[in-house]
Amino acid sequence: MNKYQTDLTIDKSKNIPYLQTVLLSDVPAEEVPFYYTTRGNERLDILANRFYQSSKKWWVIAKANNLANGTVSVPNGTKLFIPNV
Asked: What residues make up the domain containing 36?
């Protein structure tokens, strides 16, 4: 799973290839939620690596918890919903 789905597209008017970016759908809530409370200042990419074995999936945790764009650090004691992907 990646935050973006990219497709190579050709601009027919200029015959120039480019990557068209399409945002994927929202992360669904699970029937049995899993929550994690941060200890110290933790980073979403490190948490994603722990729970999903890929630091590139940090955005899944950010989106599921309505964290602001570009937020990677999470303060101590923050309760995070960790969706199953």
From this structure: 4-81
